[in-house]
Design brief:
about 180 residues, alpha+beta, 50s Ribosomal Protein L5, Chain: A, about 20% strand, globular
Length: about 180
């Protein structure tokens, strides 16, 4: 079984990127290395069951077991001690990464209320893109009646071989990422 977005990348996106950016070698074309999905659960300080529920929902969304993230240092203002569990994350690669991206773009994002597109200015200097989602209920794997609280998440697309943000933006646009229309 082949993944639809991987086939699209190999057959359509690579030739388009080579033509647009005048690349001679197909291995110089930017590609997705991994997708990191992170849930920060600050309320887990008072009740660890909230973190367990968030980890269960994240594993349903991504299809992979998340790892628990602990505080690296103590912050008195937030009542955080070093080593306390404060979140969870999943790193997706290869087939799981393309399947998650396909579900995110084609199923989950259209379910966001009043969706106009995602901002195209959240790229870092290396060409990686980070976006935030307000709640986990946009994914069809989550049953709306069974959630106890709305939990947001950050999704980072790590892109390799991108010489600048224009190449990374074009790669994500060709994958079908719905960026907001710029008012130029």
């Amino acid at each position: 079984m082949s993944v639809r977005l991987l086939e699209k990348y190999r057959k359509e996106i690579i030739p388009q990127m080579m033509e647009k950016f005048s690349l001679k070698n197909r291995f110089a074309v930017p590609h997705l290395d991994k997708i990191v999905v992170n849930m920060g659960v600050g309320e887990a300080i008072g009740d660890i069951k909230i973190l367990d529920k968030a980890m269960e929902e994240l594993s349903m969304i991504t299809g992979q077991k998340p790892i628990m993230r602990r505080a690296k240092k103590a912050i008195a203002n937030f009542k955080i001690r070093q080593g306390l569990p404060i979140g969870c994350k999943v790193t997706l690669r290869r087939v799981m990464m393309y399947e998650f991206m396909d579900r995110l773009i084609n199923v989950a994002m259209p379910r966001i209320r009043d969706f106009r597109g995602i901002p195209d200015d959240s790229f870092d200097k290396a060409g990686n893109y980070t976006m935030g989602l307000p709640e986990q209920t946009i994914f069809p794997e989550i049953e709306y009646d069974r959630i106890t609280r709305a939990q947001g998440m950050d999704i980072t697309f790590v892109i390799k071989n991108a010489k600048n943000t224009a190449q990374a933006r074009e790669l994500l646009r060709l994958f079908g990422m719905p960026f907001k229309e710029s008012k130029e």
